[in-house]
Amino acid sequence: MTPAPPPTGRPARPSLVLAAHGTRSREGERTLAALAGVVRRARPGVRVELAYLEISSPPLPAVLAAAPGPVVVVPLLLAGGYHLHVDLPAVVAAHRPGAVVADRLGPHDLLTAALAGRLAQAGLRAGDAVVLGAAGSSDPAGLADVRAAARLLSARLARPVTAAFVSSGSPSLGEALARARSPRVAVASYLLAPGFFHARLRDSGADVVSAPLGPAPGVAELVWLRYDAAVRAQRGSRTVSSALASRPVTPYAPATGSM
Q1: Is the torsion defined by CA of 144, 145, 148, 153 positive or negative?
Q2: What count of other Cβ atoms lies within 10 Å of the Cβ of residue 107?
Q3: In Å, how far from its chain's centre is CA 248?
Q4: Which residue among 119, 134, 182, 243 is buried most deeply as judged by most CB within 10 Å?
Q5: Domains 15-105+216-233 and 109-209 share a fold
Q6: Is the CATH code 3.90.1030.10 the one for domain 15-105+216-233?
Q7: What is the percentage of the chain residues whose pLDDT exceeds 70?
């Protein structure tokens, strides 16, 4: 029996808004658009929009305001930090307070597999030292996320992997490269798209620098995992709220007698 189509005039499931940071790199914008395209093709029945917190267009406030029905926002962010914990919640609260914000993308095994694939494409060799190059953050939790991603990559590659940072965080990329003990050093780009930070990785002097993750296999799958988890959490919250609202209220009767 063919299931009945969803009612017309509203999406079958909440719209998905991909919230990226933004970049001045046209190549970076094209890479993120390609990722959004892979995400969109994976589930044609869900409305998918790409938006940016700053610099690039379309801006997140406008996309949130225009999206029909319920909305789930998936941050295109690989680690925690100011944008995840401050910028994004503020924009959502101001422009779509009913929207649900999903978890950041990393760390996750799907990203680990994508990083390993990008390194292999770049020419990683068995004896190369590996550095996981990330943008960095002033938030210790964000740095911890990147170090956790480095541990996952180390386990997959069966060799040490050092997390290093281009902006805030220790060790810096330069320090990590200087400490490498192998003849060649490969940098795994823990970035979603080309731009300022990937240029810094590329110009670091490392022997191998992988491409950003972009639409690498597994990244779109991870986006949908975050979306589904957010939808389940929202439904669970509503179920609990409904259950509490339906519970009979027992009138308060003070206890009698002395204590």
Answers
A1: negative
A2: 21
A3: 42
A4: 134
A5: yes
A6: no
A7: 86
